Amino acid sequence: MKVYVYDLPSKYNTDWLSNKRCSNHLFASEVAIHKALLSSDVRTLDPSEADLFFVPVYVSCNFSTVNGFPALGHARPLLASAVQFISSQMPCWNRSNGSDHVFVASHDYGACFHAMEDVAIAGGIPKFLRKSIMLQTFGVEYRHACQAVENVLIPPYISPKSIRSTVEMMPENGKRDIWVFFRGKMEVHPKNVSGRFYSKKVRTVIWQSFNRHSKFYLKRHRFDGYQSEIARSVFCLCPLGWAPWSPRLAESVALGCVPVIIADGIRLPFSNTIRWPDISLTVAEKDVSDLANILEHIAATNLTTIQRNLWESTNRRAMLFNDHIEQGDATWQVLHSLSQKLHRSYRISRVSNQLNAEM
């Protein structure tokens, strides 16, 4: 497989790197994948031999001055401008109508390019991207307007350097002195201005049910060194936020803490490589108030097996986007998934041609 990486004007990507958060926050897979592809063996400088075309537009690096989160209001016009640029400069987009072009949508509602679900659904996927391939963190098992497009599910970005330094500091005996861990937003009164409840009230129920429980280590405030707490924990809660996915999922796998996924209908990344049922637990949102009993039951039955499966290096490697592609890492997994898509497309095309020839 060969991938052509567009050399777009810097306003679409590298200009945003003036803010250091751009390449380090949970949405930074758009930066990491671009960087890794530039030095990859799959890259071709000749578009005529390319199987796929990567369009490097950084849409999640425009941080709001009000709350510090990425502001996506500019995303659609920026992407439209990039598509207009490449379609006017080269024939590749026009000959396939963008179906062999790959974009990254690393934020909450993926290809819809809006952080609020109701607005994202109402707007849908921009028309000019509906035939393209999206690398996105957002995925659910049920029908959803924001994933009605070819996609590859990817993990949120976590810093490989941070993970490796945390692993190096872990005690040699591997002792984990925190039973159940969660640190993050857990509002008691979570109703926002549009009338929706954050985390569908799941995090509030967790806080109200277990904030005084001796085995639950729950914190509502940010702490830069919280990965060290994950490394000390047996179970790490990964409840939904606005969207089903959470960076805690990738961090927990990378640091050997059993992820407890509380997000009904979530689809998980790289499921052809990672046997998620063997390394994690899934708890229905309606059962969250019974977490203590559920986890005690797991501890009494198959916790040791889950931990052993979880600590296989294959799983940790697949969660990390490295500067240069390493076999089995997150960008390698992306390319593997894209290659599988190409093979399926080729087989379908070949069968179709055979049928037409026989008719």
TrEMBL record:
GO cellular component terms, semicolon-separated: Golgi membrane
UniProt GO BP: glucuronoxylan biosynthetic process
Membrane topology designation: Single-pass type II membrane protein
Domain Exostosin GT47 residues, every copy: 1-297
Principal location: Golgi
InterPro entries membership: Exostosin, Exostosin_GT47
Pfam families: Exostosin_GT47
A single MF term (Gene Ontology): glycosyltransferase activity
Entry keyword set: Glycosyltransferase, Golgi apparatus, Signal-anchor, Transferase, Transmembrane
Compartment(s): Golgi apparatus membrane
Membership in a protein family: Belongs to the glycosyltransferase 47 family.
Name of the protein in its database record: Exostosin GT47 domain-containing protein
The species this protein was found in: Coptis chinensis
